[in-house]
Amino acid sequence: MTIRLLLVDDHAVVRSGLKMLLGGHEEMEIVGEAGSAEEALAETERVQPNVILMDIGLPDKTGIEATREIKEKFPDVNIVALTIHEDEEYFFQMLDAGASGYVPKRAAPEELITAIRAASEGEVYLYPSLAKLLVRDFFNPDRTAEEAANLDGLTPREHEVLTHLAEGASNNEIAESLVISPKTVERHRENIMRKLNLHSRSELVRYAIRKGIIKA
Fold first, then answer.
1. pTM (predicted TM-score)
2. What angle do CA 76, 81, 87 make, to 5 degrees?
3. Nearest by Cα to 122 from 155, 156, 154, 75
4. Whether the predicted pLDDT of 138 surpasses 50
């Protein structure tokens, strides 16, 4: 399957470099580029990419806001943050907004390729040094007892839905995989978040990694 890529970065030289880097991979096709959040939203609608590489520092809105807006309008599009920012504030905000991956611009090209491929398959990819932020967070002693007691409250079907959600699958993808309706998936999602006392995507991913449901 061809991975249709949209490049979002306000620096034309960065986009040019990415096109040179990624254009040599047969399974990847650069279908568009954008230099702002508004352009990114318009281009997403126009070219219908599978994966978006999203910078955080955009001139009109942040990449976090752009990610949230795109995921709300196009939930099946997977977004990988490609940014200079490596602090936990931006990291967790991008996960909350719906990003399926987070890669610093200093990363080796192979790391970016891996993240793109993972995102295209509906998986979550976290750069190793940033995944440590999750490790530190979920070993917080204030969370351990509560989380340890919560998992048994899920039904077998909720376990399945949780796994798919943590891996970055959309409601439609989960529905197709489990042969249930998207509305049923949404009800399961609401029950999972309520039972586990989770309030965002990043909390769900941290929880799933802690429990060994997915791996960082």
1. 0.67
2. 135
3. 75
4. no
C-beta separation of 182 from 171 below 8 A: yes
How many other β-carbons are positioned within 10 Å of the β-carbon of residue 96?
Answer: 18
Predicted confidence (pLDDT) per residue in 156-196, tens digit: 888 888 888 877 677 888 899 999 998 998 899 888 888 88
For residue 189, what are its two tokens?
A: 């999602």
Short-list 110, 133, 93, CA closest to 216? 133
Angle at 115 between CA 105 and CA 136, to 5 degrees: 80
The angle formed by the CA atoms of residues 5, 11 and 14, to the nearest 5 degrees, is 55
Report, as an integer, the average pLDDT of 192-210.
Answer: 77
- Residue 51 and residue 146 in one domain: no
Q: Are residues 21 and 102 in the same domain?
A: yes
Residue 190 lies in a domain: yes
Q: Are the CB atoms for 40 and 61 separated by under 8 Å? A: no
Indicate the range of 29-43, 60-74, 167-181 predicted with least confidence.
167-181
For 3, half-sphere exposure in the C-beta direction (CA atoms, 13 angstrom radius) is 25
What is the tally of structural domains in the chain? 2
Give long-range contacts, CB 8 A cutoff, 24+ apart: 179-187: 185/161
